[in-house]
Amino acid sequence: MKRLLLEGRRLALAVLYLRYRLAVPVLAMGLVLPLSIQKILVGDGPTPQTLEQAIQLLRMILPVCAIWCPAFALRDYVEGGTCEMARAYTGAYTRQWRLVAFCGLLYLAGLAALFFWIEKQFSDFSTEVAAEWRLQVLAAVVLLGLLYFLAYCFHSSMVAFLALVLYHCVAHVMTVLPTWLSLFPALESARDSLGPDAPPAPDPAVRLVVLAVLAAVCWAAGWVEDKSYLAN
User: Fold this and answer.
1) Residue-wise pLDDT tens digits, 96-147
2) 103, 73 in Cβ contact below 8 A?
3) What's the whole-model pTM score?
4) Composition of the chain by helix, strand, coil, percent to 5
5) Is 226 exposed, middle or buried (0-12, 13-18, 19+ CB in 10 A)?
6) What is the DSSP letter of 88?
7) In which residue ranges of the chain is pLDDT below 50?
8) Which of 13, 64, 175, 210 could form a disulfide with 186 if both were Cys (CB 3.0 to 4.6 A apart)?
9) Contacts of 20 (CB under 8 A, 6+ apart)
């Protein structure tokens, strides 16, 4: 129990140590997105079109928020002169997957609060909102696993973060293509704009399985890299 309490204290302090950097995801999810969605709703109210606009905005911003805090929190453990000191202080049993998972849980708590509010705004589209919630959770798990793995591969959590942001930007504009590069399926408006030339949409069940396997592989590979990091 004492070890568990000490580990919880370490994780909380690691997040609080981010200080002003914490403001970015907090303001994005607590202020920018709600105000932007309210602006979308002005005039037409909750319709399929405004819901799609809101989802497009969420898919643009939320994945970056998911990896923001763990990217900065991991810096002391994978790069710079403090790397060996920080890892020696925390001990071998405190693999940094716990830090990434802790940041992920904080993000998912904020995500749940945001989607609870969105569901109230689009009460007639509860099924669609719930489906988007599941996609966002799965995308966050995949991205956190990728960040955890790539941070040790690149010996820099910031390089891993920038690589994932670039990947997200590229994948965001490629959602209409028949590719697994995107974490999210194409929106209806994007597919309709292509008309009869639109490629067939991937089966949702297959996409779910592929992303779940990808998440498991990334977390497992990150754990292996984490375990052998200082030895290399």
Assistant:
1) 888 899 999 999 999 999 999 999 999 888 888 998 999 899 999 999 999 9
2) yes
3) 0.85
4) 80, 0, 20
5) buried
6) H
7) 84-85, 88-89, 91, 93, 177-178, 191-192, 194
8) 175
9) none
